[in-house]
């Protein structure tokens, strides 16, 4: 059986670089394998600002800079294969289906 640290956080906006750095530093201390962010308030053109050396896979559904927006970040140490993605054009949800392979075993998330 796999054990993951999954952190879900309503960030109430993450457009400020100072706030992003503080959040990512805190998440690093939590050793989050998968990070689920709500209320990011990011525009589609800004979603790359979530790029971090620890998180190689980022999925985002954006709406506008004042409301909504969700993102899923997967830590680079998690070996997975993406099977499907469903996003909402209004930035309310993302659904991903993936296979995670670890020590010769596969788990679906």
Main traits of this protein?
109 residues, mainly beta, Deoxyribonuclease I, Chain A, three-stranded antiparallel sheet, 13% helix, double-stranded DNA 3'-5' DNA exonuclease activity, AP_endonuc_1, DNA damage, Endo/exonuclease/phosphatase
Quick description:
Its EC number is 3.1.11.2. The protein is mainly beta and 109 residues long.
Describe the structure.
By secondary structure, the chain is mainly β. The protein has one helix at 17-30, and strands at 6-10, 34-38, 55-61, 70-75, 80-87, 94-102, 105-108. The strands form 2 sheets. Strands 1-2-4-3 form a 4-stranded mixed sheet, with no helix packed on it. A 3-stranded antiparallel sheet has the order 5-6-7, with no helix packed on it. Strand 3 (55-61) and strand 4 form a beta hairpin.
Task: Describe the protein's topology.
Layout: E1 6-10, H1 17-30, E2 34-38, E3 55-61, E4 70-75, E5 80-87, E6 94-102, E7 105-108
Parallel strand pairs: 1-2
Antiparallel strand pairs: 2-4, 3-4, 5-6, 6-7
Protein name: exodeoxyribonuclease III
Catalytic activity: Exonucleolytic cleavage in the 3'- to 5'-direction to yield nucleoside 5'-phosphates
Domain Endonuclease/exonuclease/phosphatase: 8-95
